[in-house]
Amino acid sequence: MPPRQLHEQIPGLRRYARALTGNTWAADDLVQDTLERACSKWRLWLAGSDLRAWLFTIMHNIHASEVRKLVRQQQLAPTGPWEDEAQQVAEATSDNDIRLDLQRCLMQLPEDQRSVLLLVVLEDMSYADVARITSAPLGTVMSRLSRARSRLQTLMNAPAKAGPSSASAGADIVPLHRSR
Amino acid sequence: MHTAPNSPLQQDDMHAWVDERLTPEQLHAVEAQLGQHPAQHNEALQWRSQADALRVLHLDVLQEPVPAHLLESAQRISTYRHGVRQWTRWGGMAASVALAFACGWWGRPALFPGDELAQTSRTLNRGFVQQASTAHAVYAPEIRHPVEVTSAEQAHLVQWLSKRLGRPLRVPDLSAQGYVLMGGRLLPGDTGARAQFMFQNTGGARITLYVGGVTDASPKGSQDTVFQFSNQGSNRSFYWVDHGFGYALTGALERQELMALSEAVYSQLDAP
C-alpha cells in the first residue's frame, strides 16, 4: 500500500487510540501493534478497499482481545500492581476540566460500547462501516450506540465522584505496561 | 425509516439525527416527530451536545508530530513490500504485483524516497507506449493484413520474432479471457526490433501486445516492475518494463478489462 497514504492515517489512529484507551502510552502501543499487524497481514488487504477502515478493524481487534485478556487477569488476580497505577492516573486527573471528565467517563463504558461510540462520533464512520469493523450485526451496533450514549450522559450528569471505587466499578483497566 | 409524525422516534432515527446523517426530507420528518415528543427531543439534544464534546476530544493529538517509532513501523511496511520478490516460492504471482495491478500504482510520482525507478521508467517508456499505440492504431483495423504471420504458424512466428528481438519470447494464452491469437508481425522501434502480437475475441475486438528491448535505466538491484497506464483517444495501454524489455498491451477496452488482461499477460510471460 502506498506509504504516503499510510503515514496520513497515523494521527487519526493515534487520536482514536487515545480516546479508546484513555492513556497516551497505551494508545501509542496500540497504534504500533496495529501497524505491525498491518505489515504482516497486508496481503489480506483487499486491494481497492478502504485502507482507513481496514486499519481501524485491526486496531479494534487487537484492543478487544487485550481487554478480554485483562478482564481474565483481573478475575484471577484482582489486586495486581497495574490496578494501583491505573487508579493513580485516574486520581491525578481529578479536576473540573470537562475534557478530562469526558475521557474518564468514557473509560467507565464497557469497551464494546465505547469503541462503537468513538467510531461513530470521533471517526464519523457510517453505521454500516462500524458493523464491519467490529464484526457485529448492524442491530447490535445501534443498540450499543444507544447504551453508550445513555450511559455516558448519566455519567456526565452525575455529581463529581470521589474515591477509588469509581475506577474499578464496571470499568476497563487501562493497560499501562503491556506484556509482550 | 418510520416517519409517522405522531409516533415516537425510532432509536435508529434518533442516532441519525444526532449524527446529522439525514437527508433534508428525512430531517424534516424526524424533527416533526421530535417536536411531538419533548422527552425524546431533550435526550436527542443532550446526545448531540455530547457528540460535539467528543468531536473535539484529543484534537491536539492530530496536530502532534508522529513519534519516530510509529513512523518506523509504517516505513517497515513499505520496505517489506519493496523487498518482496515478485514470485513466491510456489510460482504464484507475488501479492505485491497483484496489488499493483489492482490498486492502480501507475503513472504516479515516486512512491517513497529513493524510488527513482518510477520516474525514470515513466519518461523512458512514454516513447515506447506511443509506438505501441501507433502500431495498434495502424494494424488493428486491417481487414486483409492484420498480421504478417498467422497463428496457423505459431511456432514459426515465435521462433522468428525471438531471433530478431534477441530473446526467447512467449505468447500468452488469453483464451480464458476470451481472446485468441491471430498472429504477429515484426516492427521497427526507436531502440531496435519490436514484436506485435494481435488477439481477437468473438466480438471482433482486437488487442495487441507490443514487445521489445528498451534501455534499462533501472537502478542496480531493483526488483520492482512499475506498471503504467496510458490513454490515447479511444485506445488504452497498459505497459511495463521488465528486465530490459518493454511490454505494452493496447486496445479500445475499459480499463478494468485491460487490467485483467495485462495481469494475465504479465503472469504468463514473466513466470520462472
What does this structure look like?
- Chain A is mostly helical and 180 residues long.
- Chain A has nine helices and no strands.
- In chain A, helix 1 (3-21) packs across helix 2 (24-40), helix 2 (24-40) crosses helix 3 and helix 6 crosses helix 8 (138-157).
- Chain A is globular and about 50 Å long.
- Chain A starts with a helix and ends in a 12-residue tail after the last helix.
- With 272 residues, chain B is of the alpha+beta class.
- Chain B folds into three domains: 11-57; 62-106, no CATH class; 117-269, Phosphorylase Kinase, domain 1.
- Helix content of chain B is 44%, strand content 19%.
- Chain B is built from nine helices and seven strands, in the order αααααααβαββββββα.
- Chain B has helices at residues 11-18, 24-36, 38-55, 59-63, 68-83, 95-103, 116-139, 154-165, 255-270; strands spanning 149-150, 179-189, 192-201, 206-213, 227-232, 235-242, 245-251.
- A seven-stranded antiparallel beta sheet of chain B has the order 1-2-3-4-7-6-5, sandwiched between helices.
- In chain B, a hairpin with a 2-residue loop joins strand 6 (235-242) and strand 7.
- Chain B is elongated, with a radius of gyration of 28 Å.
- Chain B starts with 10 loop residues before the first helix and ends with a helix.
- Residues 82-121 and 218-223 of chain B have low confidence and may be disordered.
